[in-house]
Structure formats: structure tokens, C-alpha cells
Amino acid sequence: MTDSTSDQPLESETSSQTYDRLSEFFEHHELLSSAAEIHGLLAGMVAGGASVEGDDWLLLLSDLINEGQSFAPAVRERVRLMAEELAASLKDPELGFQLLLPSDHAPLHERLQALTAWVQSFLVGFGVNQTNLAGLSGDLREAIDDMVEIAKLDIAVDDDEEAERAYFEIMEYLRISAMLCFNELGQNSTSGCKTNKTLH
To answer: InterPro entries annotated for this entry (predicted)?
Structure first.
């Protein structure tokens, strides 16, 4: 059993345990974004070519989820750890990257809500460094188009076997698509985070 305190390390926990702990942690620190949204943002930033070295990405993240206010030291450390683990999992030759979502035992509508929040946030993070999709491969452009459609999903679904299967298929598709983004754009990236103001 792991300790329930919110500042315990996250190693060796399942992703659903990590999700619950992070949700509690961010709520405790009065962040309005959920753990799924923050993970999605970070995944989109890293997969889109942003570097998580230095502090530029933290400034951008605070603009996106904390109204530009500096993060408390504990939050800075926690999101830095999230970003490091996420970047490592995207580089994993065993394809170990996973979306950070509620437990499979959570109600389906709750998991779908988190899934759509994750992909919406991924697209925001991805758009920080990638505003022109014309230079992307056909496969990646198609994946991004699909993500945009998934982000509009109606979460009012029947909690049945078919809906469960569809949920897992979509989750797996998003997982693979995020890795595809990273392999094409983030793998050899040394670029820092830009703000949208510098892109126009």
C-alpha cells in the first residue's frame, strides 16, 4: 500500500493510482486543470517539438493552466517530474507511453470526459510549436485531424460492452498518434517553447 500523502514519489504506482494522486495534488494546490488536461498539454508540447529543459516550458504551462501565475515550488517539481517521465516514455523503444486517465473501474462517462479533456489539451500543447500542418507527413496530418474529431466526442454514451470497446480503441489510437507525433517532430528536438505571440 502506498502512503496517501500527496507529496510521495510516484514510482511503481499504476497509472490510475498516479492519476488519482495527481488529481488530488493539483486540486489541493487550487489548479483548475485536471491531471488528464495537464498530462495532455505536456504530451502535446513534447510531441510537438518543445524542449522541457530549462524553465521556458514552465512559464508557458503557467500561462495555460495557472493564469500566468508562478507555480508553487511543490507544483513546479511535480510537473517537472511529469514532463521528464513523459518525455522518457515517448522515447521508450518498448512503446511504454500511456495516457494519464482514470482507472478502468471508473464510470465510462468519467473516463470519456477525461479522455476528451486529454486530447483537447494535447492539441493545445501541440499547437504551441506546430501551427502550420502543411509540412507534416500525410500520416501525421491525418492523425491530428482525427484527434480534432475525437476532441468533439459526445460523452453521453451508454455504459455497455460496445462503448467500452470503443473507448479502449480510441485511447490506444491516441497513444499511438502521440508517439507518431513525437517520432516525427519531437525526437530530435532542441527547440524551446515558444508562445503563440511569437508565432505570428
So the answer is: YgfB-like, YgfB-like_sf
